[in-house]
């Protein structure tokens, strides 16, 4: 039987993940008291043949029980009850925003401030995060992207690396994205904007991509950037980082930055990390000028 403990920060998506696991055949139990975990596990493993996949949701609502969780999990391993831990995390500012949007109360907030409750929760859950088999930062994940990652691990049984990379193209005239860890300026490259037949196209179109990437500057920049990312990521992982947002900007975020982001993504397919590409400003010129 495959046994998964789903835990992490409140507001990071635990309820959504349990629903996703339920959809792929897991028997899910949320907020079970810690003291009952060994009994439930023994019942399912030893006495129930019909259930092959079990997922338990454990979070800060189980506050008193969390002090016994480490000991409970060690005893389960010793008794031959294997388990996996999925830890869902998110940036504190993102969590505060989610609580404001949903108007729900944080389990530790009561009459206090949400941001203080989130930091207290992060401290309480640090021990279980260290033992997690999978860590997902959902700060910038759409629901469908989260489902893809869950399916990879628990449906397709693919090997999962606890590191998520976002390549984000943008236009400097719309501002640098606040969440970027690394920002690169590609405004030194030849600009398709001044080619009449390319002006209304984007870096997602072959003609624009080919125009940008055939320049020697673009080829060399792409190679050097990929080489640097390969060097950086293992060092980030060593320091405990679990996601990286790489911003690539040009003037309007439509031609050069999109082309370079797509080129970098092609290279990075060979790396064993979760990857997504976003083009933040690719449609903004059209909307601003009333183009279709």
Automatic annotation (TrEMBL):
Residues 1-157 form the RapZ-like N-terminal domain. The keyword Calcium does not apply. Pfam families: PapZ_C, RapZ-like_N. ATP binds at residues 8-15. The keyword tRNA processing does not apply. Residues 165-283 form the RapZ C-terminal domain. GO terms for molecular function: ATP binding; GTP binding. InterPro entries: P-loop_NTPase, RapZ-like, RapZ-like_N, RapZ_C. Keywords: ATP-binding, GTP-binding, Nucleotide-binding. GTP binds at residues 59-62. This is GlmZ(SRNA)-inactivating NTPase. It comes from Butyribacter intestini.
């Amino acid at each position: 039987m495959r046994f998964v403990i789903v835990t992490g920060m409140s507001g990071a998506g635990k309820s959504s993940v349990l629903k996703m696991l339920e959809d792929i055949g897991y028997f899910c139990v949320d907020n079970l008291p810690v003291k009952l975990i060994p009994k439930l596990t023994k019942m399912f493993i030893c006495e129930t043949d019909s259930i092959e996949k079990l997922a338990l949701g454990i979070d800060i609502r189980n506050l008193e029980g969390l002090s016994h969780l480490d000991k409970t999990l060690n005893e389960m391993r010793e008794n031959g009850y294997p388990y996996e831990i999925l830890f869902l995390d998110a940036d504190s500012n993102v969590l505060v925003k989610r609580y404001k949007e949903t108007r729900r109360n944080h389990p530790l907030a009561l009459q206090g401030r949400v941001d203080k409750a989130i930091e207290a929760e992060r401290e309480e859950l640090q021990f279980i995060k260290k033992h997690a088999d999978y860590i997902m930062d959902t700060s910038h994940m759409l629901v469908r992207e989260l489902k893809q990652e869950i399916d990879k691990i628990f449906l397709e049984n693919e090997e999962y690396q606890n590191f998520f990379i976002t390549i984000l193209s943008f236009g400097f005239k719309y501002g640098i994205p606040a969440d970027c860890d690394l920002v690169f300026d590609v405004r030194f490259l030849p600009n398709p904007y001044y080619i009449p037949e390319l002006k209304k196209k984007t870096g997602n179109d072959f003609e624009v991509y080919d125009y940008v990437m055939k320049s020697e500057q673009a080829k060399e920049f792409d190679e050097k950037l990929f080489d640097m990312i390969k060097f950086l990521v293992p060092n980030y992982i060593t320091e405990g980082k679990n996601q990286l947002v790489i911003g690539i900007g040009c003037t309007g975020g439509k031609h050069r930055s999109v082309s370079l982001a797509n080129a970098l993504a092609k290279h990075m397919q060979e790396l064993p990390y979760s990857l997504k590409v976003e083009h933040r400003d690719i449609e903004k010129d059209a909307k601003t000028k009333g183009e279709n």
